[in-house]
Design brief:
Blueprint (H helix, E strand, L loop, with lengths): L1 H26 L9 H28 L3 H12 L10 H16 L4 H69 L3 H30 L1 H39 L7 E3 L2 E3 L19 H5 L4
Antiparallel strand pairs: 1-2
Helix pairs in contact: 1-5, 2-5, 4-5, 5-6, 5-7
Length: 294
């Protein structure tokens, strides 16, 4: 119990010393140990990597899952390590509505039949979209999220610890300058050597982590290539599905008679006469239109 009380008192004293040192630095009454330019460049690159990766991740997730409510729901399920809820895409809902309408209008009618075919195509597109979202998550968004929550958090934690060590070091330097007695000077110098050693060690650890950002960029480049390949595959599948639908609809459409006037093809007006018949193709030239009976 005595050990715990002493430790609490010691930690409280160190915290107060850091607050005083930080305040004096802001007021300009105390010197601050500056990190070297190489370290600062490494830190700036790491911080920029964090900010840019967060933006890319956020915007990519917004494209994959446009509904913010669904994104929040997926995030919660991921945090509690449960399977994400299975939900239909908007294309699949559209496909269901079209198929239902086509059956209501009659599969034997031209409009009803077309609605059913298009609805089935929309369902295929929806399933393809869901597969793409899953693949993009595995190869791109999830690795980026893992980087931010793992490696980047570790770097920030060690950088904050380095700042604490730096405050302790500068506080020791001030105590050495302000020492009046020989014993006080010796004690302050001993504390300074310990603080300097801890600061140097923490600076080296943080520097090694910051230098690893370069390899992280190479890894993220590989993730980006995989994401592009997934997109290419997705859009190619969508194109094939739509091309098949277009061909199927075109083959089921019967061409009607053609009326040609001044080199333009016009659809003939609908006739209410039951005996009226058209021969396909029926072509009437301008010369025939200009012929009059006497």
């Amino acid at each position: 119990m005595d050990f715990n009380v002493k430790k609490i008192v010691k930690d409280a004293g160190a915290a107060i010393s850091r607050v005083v040192q930080y305040t004096e630095e802001k007021l300009g009454t105390s010197e601050k140990t500056e990190l070297d330019a190489h370290f600062e460049n490494l830190w700036n690159r790491a911080d920029m990597t964090k900010v840019c990766t967060e933006k890319i991740l956020r915007n990519t997730e917004a494209i994959l899952v446009p509904n913010p409510g669904n994104r929040i729901e997926d995030y919660i399920f991921d945090k509690i390590e449960k399977k994400r809820p299975s939900r239909l895409s908007n294309l699949e809902y559209l496909g269901l509505d079209m198929i239902e309408a086509g059956n209501e209008f009659g599969p034997g009618t031209a409009y009803g039949s077309a609605l059913i075919k298009v609805g089935q195509c929309e369902q295929k597109l929806g399933q393809t979209e869901r597969d793409f979202i899953g693949s993009a998550g595995l190869c791109y968004t999830q690795p980026l999220q893992k980087f931010l929550e793992g490696e980047m958090k570790t770097i920030i934690k060690e950088k904050n610890l380095l700042e604490v060590k730096r405050l302790d070091l500068d506080a020791c330097k001030n105590r050495v300058r302000k020492a009046r007695s020989l014993l006080g000077t010796q004690t302050a110098e001993r504390d300074l050597r310990i603080a300097q050693s801890e600061f140097d060690r923490q600076a080296e650890i943080t520097k090694l982590l910051l230098e690893g950002i370069g390899s992280s960029h190479s890894t993220h480049l590989r993730y980006l290539y995989q994401f592009v390949e997934t997109q290419v595959k997705y859009y190619s599948q969508c194109k094939n599905i739509m091309a098949e639908l277009q061909q199927e609809l075109a083959s089921s459409t019967k061409p009607g008679p053609v009326l040609r006037v001044n080199s333009e093809d016009l659809e003939p007006p609908a006739s209410n006469t039951s005996n009226a018949t058209f021969h396909s193709p029926a072509v009437l030239t301008t010369h025939d239109l200009n012929t009059t009976s006497i």
